[in-house]
Amino acid sequence: MENFNFHSPTEFVFGKGRENGCGIYVKKYGGHKVLVHFGSGSVVRSGLLDRIKASLEKEGIPYVLLGGVHPNPRDTKVYEGIELCRKEGVDLILAVGGGSVIDSAKAIAIGVPYKGDFWDFYSGKAVPEAALPVGTVLTIAAAGSEGSGDSVITKEDGMWKRGTGSTLLRPKFSIMNPELTCTLPAYQTACGATDIMAHVFERYFTNTPEVEITDRLCEAVLLTMVNETPRVIKDPNNYDARANIMWAGTVAHTNICGVGREQDWNSHGIEHELSGLYDCAHGAGLAVVMPSWMEYVMKHDVNRFANMAVRVFGVAMDENNPENTALEGIKAFRRFLHDIGMPINFSEIGAKEEDIPVLVEKFGLGETGRTGGFVQLSSDDVKEILKIAAHATL
Amino acid sequence: MENFNFHSPTEFVFGKGRENGCGIYVKKYGGHKVLVHFGSGSVVRSGLLDRIKASLEKEGIPYVLLGGVHPNPRDTKVYEGIELCRKEGVDLILAVGGGSVIDSAKAIAIGVPYKGDFWDFYSGKAVPEAALPVGTVLTIAAAGSEGSGDSVITKEDGMWKRGTGSTLLRPKFSIMNPELTCTLPAYQTACGATDIMAHVFERYFTNTPEVEITDRLCEAVLLTMVNETPRVIKDPNNYDARANIMWAGTVAHTNICGVGREQDWNSHGIEHELSGLYDCAHGAGLAVVMPSWMEYVMKHDVNRFANMAVRVFGVAMDENNPENTALEGIKAFRRFLHDIGMPINFSEIGAKEEDIPVLVEKFGLGETGRTGGFVQLSSDDVKEILKIAAHATL
């Protein structure tokens, strides 16, 4: 196991009706003037925004509203938010929505006290040193941003999708009511589930030896997702299954499952180019990329893939040929994704094989670059993975 | 799943040599004058205390020392610590040791700003409302106090062992170097492992339905302990196995595995009477009590016990008779405890069957009281469990 620091100071406020007390937590964490940040009209139509407003008003906390955050949130909205916060003297940002809204709120939070262009944090030019506190009211189990120190933003000019991370970006509190996710369409629910599983797999495939506890924690989250996701696809109003998935989504991405081990975020990186170019859902892109990445890198550590197959997907171990077991595991994962309604190849997300050179170029490794922890990838490797993804079948 | 709040703001600083930077974390969390609190001479003899002093001195932080904390820490030492802190103007307590030292440090931390007797928090007369910050340098994987908001103290006058809990008692930081545990005698290592497993079992056995994610997380920790503990008993210097156990011990008790579900802490409660009366190690007492409690309550939910047997101890499921499977699981647990060197019955910890009435009386349920979540116990039930414990065999 490698040395690590783990610091997840977010207060999670979980369960039915908890959003009705959000004003209490805004006050507890020092908010006197709040930016309520949200996405589409569903937050308005469902009455959620009214309940948030009512709770803030009950605590006597003034607020300004900024809606309209896109999935794959854009830099343009972040600039708008930074300006609004400065003008209004906002001292806490309350993100009401999913990963996109929360990531946008985090970008605004580090942008407000920063003198330069907030994009510096995403292009790698600067590291966040101060941030407004962020609270969240989560409406979809997916990105894990409610408990992570990460944020991903897309620059409209060129559709560059880039991320940043810092303990400063961990929300002060996150209100998580699984009921709010019951009205999600099945497709979005499945996209979220895929994202959660991907967050675990990106940590699970590692070269760090002897990491039994984090291996087992990863498998715990994956088993939960394999068992609970089909239940909510079948019955969207199954509160307990929704609750299990929601908490699993947080555990998947606070990094408690990933500490002390080398990680590999190449599937996320490659997917970012897909959703950046085609504006497909992040989870849908992951469903296409991740099993293809697995097939491509599997031989690097067949036993780890075979273990995953046995422990997570209940594949029988073929002692004479663990490679078969490993392949069966990847197949089972792809079948699981298909069964919950996810795409598994390019055509199902509207991607085109002829765009692969563009995708590879945007990935940015050039002729000699390499990236990744479990298996270092070159531009040629990324091309091969995308080719597998283009033609994948069950 | 039930509604819950989960808030674990402790910064965990994990790995080789990390204690040498403890002064940095004392400074980060606002310490200007530190009480260094510790137990036996081993902290001195091993050179650990000198390394702690050196790090504090490097950061220019003055300190006072208070050693001599007993296993099953006593109120008398707490009173001494409170007086010393007040006299010296201490503003952060650094606990260097295991659960006893950390629990004693927590008691001092809530005692210093309190006008009454600190025991009020343990007798249930008062709830902590303020505390000095506590940091820890952990030397044994066991109690999980490095990441919990709990503290247990024994009142010397009558040997009453009682606990209190509050988010205020969560350490600000915990430095965890698995190397420091390599010199522990096998018996203490095994006691610690038993305590860690008990912390999970007390959460695992629940009446709350549909708690898949926390079930799986509990099983993840248990599987880790079943796999890793025999390795460190065989090879005390196995760093990676020590590291897996140490992180498992923290995960077992921050409550991330226990949120949203009813818990049952009766085995711990009953054990407290054993170690209170005989001053045996807490883990040793748990090894005697916990499987006996399991046998006694098993019929309340045979399927849950059968699941545990299958998933944690690899027992084959007997579909025609799940009760057999459940019993085999408890047997496997007791054999595991015996194999790592733990006692399994009264005689092995120097307890006497004729003391059972005294133990039951001290447990304090009287004629009509009941306690427990999974199964409510009366004084008669406790007596029966202790009888099983008195005579348990493999």
Task: Jot down its keywords.
alpha/beta, 48% helix, homodimer, 9 strands, Dehydroquinate synthase-like, alpha domain, Rossmann fold, 394 residues, 2 domains
Describe this structure in words.
The structure is a homodimer of 394-residue chains. Chain A has 394 residues and is an alpha/beta fold. Chain A folds into 2 domains: 11-180, Rossmann fold, CATH 3.40.50.1970; 184-391, Dehydroquinate synthase-like - alpha domain (Dehydroquinate synthase-like, alpha domain, Up-down Bundle). Chain A has 15 helices and 9 strands. Chain A has helices at residues 22-28, 42-45, 48-58, 75-88, 99-111, 120-123, 186-204, 212-234, 239-251, 266-278, 282-297, 302-313, 322-339, 356-363, 379-391, and strands spanning 4-7, 11-14, 34-38, 63-66, 92-97, 134-138, 150-155, 160-165, 173-176. In chain A, the strands form 2 sheets. In chain A, strands 2-9-6-5-3-4 form a 6-stranded parallel sheet, sandwiched between helices. A two-stranded antiparallel sheet of chain A has the order 7-8. In chain A, helix 1 (22-28) packs across helix 3 and helix 7 runs parallel beside helix 11. The longest helix of chain A has 23 residues, at 212-234. Chain A is globular and about 70 Å long. Chain A starts with a strand and ends with a helix. In chain A, 57% of the residues are buried. The mean pLDDT of chain A is 97. The interface between A and B is large, with 45 and 45 residues. Strand 1 of chain A pairs antiparallel with strand 2 of chain B, so a sheet runs across the interface.
